[in-house]
TrEMBL record:
Transmembrane spans: 15-40, 65-87, 107-128, 159-180, 192-216, 279-301, 322-343, 355-372
Domain Mechanosensitive ion channel transmembrane helices 2/3: 329-369
Name this polypeptide is given: Mechanosensitive ion channel protein
Compartments, as annotated in UniProt: Cell membrane
Pfam families recorded: MS_channel_1st, MS_channel_2nd
Principal subcellular localisation of the protein: membrane
InterPro entries registered for this protein in UniProt: LSM_dom_sf (IPR010920), MS_channel_1st (IPR049142), MscS_beta-dom_sf (IPR023408), MscS_channel_2nd (IPR006685), MscS_channel_C_sf (IPR011066), MscS_channel_TM-2 (IPR011014), YbiO_bact (IPR045276)
Membrane topology: Multi-pass membrane protein
GO terms assigned for molecular function: mechanosensitive monoatomic ion channel activity
Domain (Mechanosensitive ion channel MscS) ranges: 370-435
Length: 549
């Protein structure tokens, strides 16, 4: 193939040839850079990845600037070639003819076929995109017509926002994978285009799958809760509702780990890291399964040990104490087994770990005897039924309600709301006010000036009202035991009352109020501190003054 001379003189012919070549190179470079930046920008927009949006906008805006920078070397090279030809008097016509001879018809056919395939690829993509858009609209209408809860609606909106991007990237990936073998691009460019679309599709599809799993899990648990109301399984489905956030986060982690594993396998240099993806998925799945086992174990223990509600109060509290202990044991046992399974999956033999833990535990146990003493004493406190959760006890100088008993410490809440945390090894002598009846003792002061028999009668009448005011708490009518002490300023009368466990303070307060009201009503004096002021005697007058008077 030969180019006809464009002018008669060699100088003008050289100028026209160089100008045509420069113009053709500028056209090709501008077309490639602008179209590639546009396609990259559209791909990032279709992915819906917000972190890459700024990159896509920057590439699209700088595509023409980059083309301008590329044009400068082309123009400079063309000008230099033309100047050399004019300086040396060389005719460039044979050079261009020789260059055109290198362009065979097969190359031209390949270029034309490639350009045609690119055009057909774009046409096919936009045609399929319209069909995908209509499908997305139908799915959106179907979901919006359903009655959804607030959490479900939020996940649906996020899914619908990213679904068009997934469809666009899936279509683009399909069309490009079908067209690239026919275009016969260099291997590096072919790999770059296909890998970029593949990664964008995986990331966007992973996000859409996460939102879909969130929506399906919310809807599934909600439907199960509605069906289980009033059935024996209602409590178990309530556990599923509590575990739903953990399950959703686990599914999200599994999805993203799977996406990362598929992306890593696309790069040969990162292939050794790929096997860790399934291992991480198993680890996340096992810890979620452990959470499910722990929660269902808590429910089963509660139902087995507190099935009857007609038992005595102390039996019920004893069951509640052992329920907490069994739930803690189940939790520690399940997570310990899961940790051993995780070590096995990571390639670590758990047998030496268990043996080392036993040796270390023995060493620590010999060195930390106080901890061992606390644990042993805590076990005896529980199994000997000395104290239970909810008991009102006195241990040393600490008095109050037992909040919680663990194998190592006991937590007691006193009457002022302060929480006392005591080591079980320090508990030596326990006074338990919650085992059977206790005595509420009140000492009423009677003034010496009052009629003692009347005061005793008033105390008996006031005490007799107590069982009616506090039924179930004051077990018997209070007994007036008589004068307990004779003080310097008053007589103290002792009154004893049998009360239900833990009610002695309330009964004493009410009895005090009855006694004060009865003394005031009968005009009996309640002793209080008094002071006596003595005036000095008047001086005696002299004898002479008395006679004069």
């Amino acid at each position: 193939m030969v180019i006809s001379r464009l002018a008669e003189t060699p100088e003008l012919n050289n100028a026209l040839l160089v100008g045509s070549a420069v113009l053709l190179l500028l056209l090709v470079s501008w077309s490639v850079l602008v179209i590639s930046s546009f396609l990259l920008h559209q791909g990032i927009r279709a992915s819906g990845i917000q972190s890459l949006a700024a990159l896509g906008e920057g590439v699209y805006k700088r595509g023409r600037l980059l083309a301008s920078f590329v044009s400068i070397p082309v123009i400079v090279a063309g000008t230099a070639l033309l100047g050399y030809a004019l300086w040396s008097g060389t005719d460039l016509q044979p050079w261009f003819d020789q260059a055109l001879l290198e362009v065979t018809p097969d190359i031209l056919k390949a270029l034309g076929r490639g350009a045609g395939l690119v055009v057909l690829m774009l046409i096919g993509f936009y045609t399929l995109q319209r069909g995908g858009r209509r499908l997305v609209v139908r799915v959106e209408q179907t979901l919006r017509e359903r009655q959804l809860h607030e959490a479900q609606r939020i996940h649906v909106e996020k899914l619908l926002a990213i679904l068009p991007s997934v469809v666009n990237l899936a279509l683009a990936n399909t069309v490009v994978n079908l067209a690239l073998p026919a275009v016969d691009l260099p291997v590096a460019i072919d790999w770059l285009i296909s890998t970029t679309l593949y990664i964008l599709l995986l990331v966007t599809g992973g996000r859409a799958l996460v939102f879909l799993l969130y929506f399906l899990s919310e809807r599934l648990v909600a439907s199960w809760e509605a069906k289980s109301q009033g059935t024996p399984l209602e409590e178990y489905y309530a556990v599923l509702r509590r575990l739903l956030p953990v399950g959703q986060k686990s599914l999200e982690a599994i999805t993203y780990i799977s996406v990362a594993t598929l992306i890593v396998r696309k790069f040969q240099t990162l292939e050794p890291v790929a096997p860790y993806g399934p291992i991480l998925i198993r680890v996340v799945s096992m810890f979620f399964a452990a959470s499910v086992l722990v929660e269902f174990g808590r429910v089963m223990v509660t139902r087995l040990l507190s099935a009857s509600t007609s038992v005595a109060d102390d039996v019920q509290r004893r069951r509640q104490t052992f329920i907490s202990l069994m739930q803690s044991i189940i939790k520690y046992a399940v997570y310990f087994c899961i940790c051993m399974m995780v070590l096995s999956d990571l390639g670590v033999d758990p047998t030496p770990v268990l043996a080392g833990a036993g040796i270390v535990g023995l060493t620590v146990g010999l060195g930390a005897q106080t901890i061992v003493q606390d644990l042993i004493n805590g076990i005896f406190l529980l199994f000997e039924d000395q104290i239970l959760n909810g008991d009102y006890v006195r241990i040393g100088d600490t008095e109050g309600m037992v909040d919680e008993i663990t194998p190592r410490v006991t937590r007691i809440r006193d009457r002022y709301g302060r929480l006392h945390i005591m080591r079980n090894g320090e508990i030596k002598n326990v006074i338990n006010y919650s085992r059977g009846w206790t005595l509420a003792v009140v000492e009423m002061s009677v003034a010496y000036e009052s009629d003692l028999r009347q005061a005793l009668r008033v105390i008996n009448e006031a005490s007799a009202q107590l069982p009616n005011l506090l039924p179930g708490k004051a077990i018997e009518t209070p007994k007036v035991m008589g004068i307990e002490t004779i003080d310097e300023s008053c007589l103290r009368v002792r009154i004893e009352t049998k009360v239900a466990p833990g009610c002695h303070y309330e009964v004493k307060r009410v009895l005090h109020m009855l006694l004060v009201e009865s003394f005031n009503a009968n005009k009996l004096e309640i002793p209080y501190p008094k002071s006596v002021e003595l005036s000095p005697p008047e001086p005696l007058a002299p004898p002479g003054e008395k006679e004069a008077a």
